[in-house]
Design brief:
Elements: H1 3-17, E1 21-31, E2 35-47, H2 53-63, E3 83-86, E4 89-92, E5 105-109, E6 116-118, E7 121-122, H3 125-133, H4 158-162, H5 175-179, H6 181-185, H7 192-202, H8 210-217, H9 231-235, H10 242-253
Parallel strand pairs: 1-5
Antiparallel strand pairs: 1-2, 3-4, 3-5, 6-7
Helix pairs in contact: 3-7, 7-8, 7-10
Bound molecules: iron/sulfur cluster (SF4) and FE2/S2 (inorganic) cluster.
Length: 258
């Protein structure tokens, strides 16, 4: 092994094997099917510079208590599975480094405004149903794209794409819905996630579903239920601004834009 490789290898083994500190991880435990009472189990976990909250929870699962229920998949802020409350704030566990929390005690709880399945895992049914309701796809009723017409794609300018691109980053993690005070008060409210996606498709110049989508959200449990707390936009890990999407949707309904 070359000198350089030896140095890299030594550095790596130090990074992997030498925990920089330990933290106390408090995990909310509950199982509504058995007993609705919540308790907190505490574990002391070694952490390194890049340890995420999800890594710490998986450490518990691997070595201390494999019965902890947590949903995750990609471990890179792409799948939207690992949302939870971390020290009281909605966040992705795989996108939150322990050292950045600047505390020796980390409390993880299931997201608010979602029914708990068990421990940190929540039920997404309501959010996905609302998402489906707003028709989250490009609607085209014409037969423009056909081999015999010679049209194979519908082109958009960079300006067209700019109108909706930030909204297409949504990974359906539900953090916006969990931060929303209106979701907590009105279980029929469609929620910021679905409203932001309604805007995403309406703003797409290829789409022809605007009128139907506006009819769906023009409801007392739809867009008019939002009180503009703005917390949805503050917690989004992907830079989506549902509060702005809701404002823009209202401008269509108020006749301020076509
Ligand atoms: S808008 Fe942001 S916070 Fe809400 S579900 Fe999509 S990615 Fe998550
Ligand atoms: S595990 Fe996929 S977003 Fe965190």
């Amino acid at each position: 092994m070359s000198e350089l490789n030896q140095e890299i290898s030594q550095e790596k083994s130090q990074t992997v094997l030498s925990p920089t500190k330990s933290v106390k991880l408090r995990i909310s435990r509950s199982n509504p099917e058995v007993n609705s009472e919540e308790r907190f189990d505490e574990f002391v976990i070694p952490v390194e510079k890049y340890t995420t909250v999800l890594d710490a929870i998986l450490n518990v699962k691997s070595h201390l208590d494999h019965s902890v229920a947590v949903r995750y998949s990609c471990r890179q802020a792409s799948c939207g599975s690992c949302g939870m409350k971390i020290n009281g704030k909605p966040a992705l566990a795989c996108f939150t480094k322990v050292v950045e929390l600047n505390t020796d005690t980390i409390t993880v709880e299931p997201m608010d405004n979602f029914p708990i399945v068990r421990d940190l895992a929540v039920n997404f049914t309501r959010m996905f149903n609302n998402h489906k309701k707003i028709m989250p796809y490009v609607v085209r009723e014409d037969s423009e794209i056909k081999p015999d017409t010679g049209v194979k794609e519908i082109l958009q300018t960079p300006e067209d794409v700019d109108k909706y691109i930030q909204f297409s980053s949504c990974i359906k993690c539900g953090l916006c819905n969990s931060a929303c005070p209106t979701m907590a008060m009105d279980t029929s409210f469609v929620g910021p996630q679905a409203l932001a996606q309604a805007y995403r498709y309406i703003a797409d110049t290829r789409d022809k579903g605007k009128d139907n989508r506006l009819k769906i959200i023009d409801d007392s449990h739809g867009i008019w239920r939002c009180h503009f707390a703005g917390s949805c936009s503050q917690v989004c890990p992907k830079g989506v601004d549902p509060a702005m999407g809701i404002q823009l949707l209202r401008s269509y309904l108020l006749g301020l834009r076509d």
